[in-house]
User: Which sequence fits this backbone?
């Protein structure tokens, strides 16, 4: 069965402000120094899925940019433009309908656009196995990540006892104590948000578990390959109920399997995650661009051009871009979105 | 007797990096929002000393800039250019010789170029009194500052017991415990580095206490008003022994009087002193330029153009200029010079 990649690239990118902007969200950033994240997501899977068989679902405002930055990897009609952000269930349902209506059926391999993967060979093998499993079993396959520390920033997947792949339950982000128990128990995996299944199978689940969304998807599907396609999408898509695929389907379906992923995975969620992507220097600092430090420890210094000089500081994220400078406690990197919110409140749109 | 102002503006300005540069040291910065510091030094004394009777002693490299930025306050021949920095004794001796040889004699009122004074009326009255006293008594008058906190960054002047103005001794920068004792004793004043005396009187002290320097000054003096003046200065000045006026004369002379200064004085020594110049906002922050803060306390944020955004930080100095960003623990602001030293070592002259 034909395989398709689906990259969810609809993020607003507030957590990498001031580098990420409304016009240039995280998926377009080159944080690893090789290529922008959305392209790396395609390129690391060439052995498993053909480049031209990827779809990128993104905000309408970023559709042209996505196509341009994909630099010939895929055709323009493989950019699926969302007229409005309606969370991951809508995004995945739209892609599934596209595949079923335009290509018959296929195995969909779904990836967020903001993952960093160290061991791409192991990763490709895992996705290959998941695709085979999805085709053979007709089940919903999710990729779990073997935890390496008691993370409180991820949801977890609990496996059934004495079972290789069956899922007991999905659990929310834990507190530190609970995360430590999860880590030592050996039966919990991080929920990576990567899914593999047949397009027709996930649509069946929409019909059963999310009938309101399915009704919308049916209308959109009916218009596909007709002159009214874009018009119907523009009208219907913004009315799709907002719900995540985890909450809407994964936590409720009874035919979910999980594969253990062990390939050096990081969710590039906000600035402090650069610590995991780069090897910090002897002082624990991660430096991009020019930097001079006096008594500077465990800082992330990211410069777009200017020299960043630091004296007597530690555990800071410092980012300089063309029009803004961020200085943030590393533990508070998630709260960079509060800066973006404040800018919106104050109408300082030039910085958004 | 005619009065002259002498402003010592020879500083290299490393402590206000990255705003101050080799080509633009601290005395040319407008940190108070009114005018550059060297001009403010002239303008706050118009009731006591005529603008055109000021001299500015500065590094030869900054002589033209000093004249331009003085914006008509004084004639070009009142900029005394030092071919080399030889500390304050040389600087003051040169100015004294200039006054004696070219104008007969006069009361010299000597000021560093980096002081902030809140109550300029009280300041002018103090200098007026000092000038009268210097003329009447022929003694060396120094301005002491009534301490408002146990400062460890200033030298102190101890007054004789039961004496209004007589000096017991000059003492070095104390540790905190000692500074607290000085503060509570009531007989210690901060050594401000402002001096008032007759030019002829200080030259007598050079002859007696610093004969090597006096010999150099005599050679320079003999060439003044001759075509060889600049040539002799260029040759002799760099050979003058480097010593401060405090160490060379003030601490050894027996005819020193001190006036109590109480006019809201701050030495604008490094970035953290901006806290004293500006009223911090409700969160203790001093902001110049655009800034957005989330949970930000007791920071100094100085922007030359870009937005500075801060999250979860406190007690930092953050400075953004055209080509550099500084992030510094406020307690370590003195160590900004180490950045400058590192830049010199690394040959990154474009940032100096």
Assistant:
């Amino acid at each position: 069965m034909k395989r398709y990649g689906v990259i969810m690239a609809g993020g607003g990118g507030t957590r990498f402000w001031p580098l990420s902007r409304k016009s240039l969200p995280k998926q377009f950033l080159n944080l690893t120094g090789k290529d922008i994240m959305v392209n790396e997501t395609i390129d690391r899977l060439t052995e498993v899925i053909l480049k031209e068989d990827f779809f990128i679902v993104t905000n309408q405002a970023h559709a042209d940019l996505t196509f341009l930055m994909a630099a010939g990897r895929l055709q323009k009609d493989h950019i699926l433009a969302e007229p409005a952000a309606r969370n991951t269930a809508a995004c995945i349902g739209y892609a599934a309908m596209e595949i079923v209506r335009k290509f018959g059926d296929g195995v969909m391999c779904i990836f967020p656009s903001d993952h960093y993967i160290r061991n791409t060979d192991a990763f490709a093998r895992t996705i290959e196995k998941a695709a085979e499993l999805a085709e053979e079993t007709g089940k919903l396959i999710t990729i779990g990540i073997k935890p390496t520390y008691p993370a409180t920033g991820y949801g977890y997947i609990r496996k059934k006892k004495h079972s290789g792949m069956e899922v007991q339950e999905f659990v929310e982000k834990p507190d530190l104590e609970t995360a430590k128990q999860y880590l030592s128990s050996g039966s919990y995996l991080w929920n990576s948000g990567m899914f593999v299944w047949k397009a027709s199978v996930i649509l069946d689940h929409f019909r059963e578990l999310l009938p309101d969304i399915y009704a919308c998807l049916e209308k959109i599907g009916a218009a596909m390959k007709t002159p009214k396609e874009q018009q119907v999408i523009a009208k219907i898509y913004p009315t799709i109920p907002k719900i995540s695929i985890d909450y809407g389907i994964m936590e409720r379906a009874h035919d979910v399997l999980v594969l253990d992923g062990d390939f050096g995975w990081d969710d590039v969620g906000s600035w402090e995650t650069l610590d995991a992507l780069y090897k910090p220097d002897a002082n624990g600092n991660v430096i991009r661009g020019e930097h001079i430090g006096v008594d500077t420890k465990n800082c992330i210094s990211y410069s777009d051009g200017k020299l960043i000089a630091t004296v007597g500081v530690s555990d800071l994220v410092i980012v300089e871009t063309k029009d803004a400078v961020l200085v943030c406690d590393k533990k508070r990197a998630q709260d960079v979105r509060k800066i973006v919110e404040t800018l919106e409140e104050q109408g300082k749109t030039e910085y958004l």
User: Anything to note?
Assistant: Residues 271-351 of chain B form one domain. Chain B has two domains: 3-267, 271-351.
